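User: Hey, my collaborator sent me this sequence without any context and asked if I could get a structure. I don't really work with proteins. Can you help?
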Amino acid sequence: MLIVLEPDITQKQKNQIYRILREGGCISREITEAGRHIIGSTGDAGRPPDFFESLEGVARVVPVNTAFKLVSRQMHPEDTRVQVGDVSVGGERIVVIAGPCAVENRERTLSIAGQVRKYGAVLFRGGAFKPRTSPYAFQGLGEEGLKILAEVRQTFGMPVVTEITTPAQADLVMKYVDVIQIGARNMQNFELLKCVGRLGKPVLLKRGLAATIEEWLMSAEYIVSEGNDNVILCERGIRTFEPYTRNTLDLSAIPVIKNLTHLPVIIDPSHATGIREKVSPMARAAIAAGADGLMIEVHDDPDHALSDGAQSLYPEQFSRLMRDLYVISPVVDKQLDFGYLDKARAVDRMQKAGNGQGRRAAFLGEPGTYSHKACMQYFGGQVQPVPMDSFKEIYETVREGAADFGVIPLENSLAGSVHENYDLLLEYDLRIVGEILLRIEHHLIGHPEARVEDIRRVYSHPQVFQQCRSYIDRHQWEWIPVSDTARAVRLVKEQNNPAEGALAGRDAARIHEMQILEQGIEANARNYTRFVVIAREPISGGQKNKSSLIFSTGNQPGALFEALKVFADKGINLVKLESRPIHGKPWEYMFYVDLEADVDSDELAPVIRQLEQKIDYLKILGSY
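Assistant: No problem. I've predicted the 3D structure and written it out in structure-token form, which is a compact way to encode the shape of the chain:
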């Protein structure tokens, strides 16, 4: 059951509840959800729910009626995020685990690790102990394989995942790896499940060959009941009568799992299909269906792999898949971050250099705005978001060092560029250190008891009204413009009038505990905003493949052509070119350019020198 506590409950009253539950042999833990404090309890306390409702400090009691208690979303309404080193599994960033099926030797493993790291994988997989169908097949290198995995982590900074097949391997695995995998054949090896539950390390639990979803979740319950909440579920296909794939990948399990449990779920399309050509299509489909991540087998010579070569992608295929996922992710409110590990380590180094003080990132508006969402998706939980009232205030705050980063919108796919921010980039000596593309989806939000037909007045940002014009024109509503969408939702909540609504994002509704009355009401679903992250200094480390700069040319024929020809001659692709008039100089313009290149690199230094000879002014905004 869930015991919802009163906000003003005393510690003495709370201790009394715990004492009664403990005497009844219950397992209990406190949960914080949407600002409320809840005690989740499993077991038979020997007392009916109304007894607990009568206790001082208890607001209400909610029975949990599923067989799996601790992993149930009833017990834990908010999503669990499993932290593996610098990587958070279950958040808004897609986590890709990649590597060979088995650790074969040191040189090959390190080579594959370097390639998957380069293409965006954040965890490395490789089996040191291999449970094989045939006793004559390669069974893994054992401890030697674990030592190679530890070297991968040390060399490339990637946490490592490997399978454990018996409790006797527990001490070895604890010594070398970051995530313990329970394979499909061991999903109901209950002694092994209890063992890894006691170890405390994150566990990746694969679904059994013929297991139902409830059986799978009950296996997770074994692990969590031993005190280990860090469980990642992995769907890897189930055995059916279909012979054209190794297994049948049950993508329908993703929304079912998301509804039933708070645990993150990833997909293994390699074992599901068993055929290389089918891995990428199913990986793309898994992300579109809402998976938190993927486990992909990659090998640089799969024809000679000692295990599962037929289903392993070549590194080049893995690279193309990652680029596809980068495009797909924003559609489902996720991000695939190629600089995930480098960024995390850079922010960590900044924190250590600042005597352990947390990093701060300024954004426009209140928590729940799209700028706030961009900030959280880019940094995860590594920084403290700081709300600001204006773009200029963000720049000032970053320049003065009161915030380490600023998150600002530069352009929207429907409304065009945010010219104020282009002008401020020219004015302030700050660097662009990153970017993030966010899908903008507006909803009609109201009180929990409100209905669409009750609404008479709506609040939102003026731009949102324009983007939702075709929807709101169907209603006789009064429009009230406000500074940002989250503030609109807050005003509706504070005024407590069911006839008032707001047009805003899902996060604002969740933060203020309001109801989404209509989803996706914008006129054009291709509504994306590109945000950039600004800082005083570049974020060190990592591969940079894009740059932004500003330049001006003389007012003469062919001046712009000659400048752009410098990039064309070197095969450098321009992805954005925009002009802005220079104040006080009629018919003269500044040009804002985005390139697919790292202009800060030594390799491009001659190109920049050649460009400077053909233009009047140049400012490099940053490489990222």
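In plain terms: The longest helix spans residues 143-156. You can pass these tokens on to your collaborator as they are.
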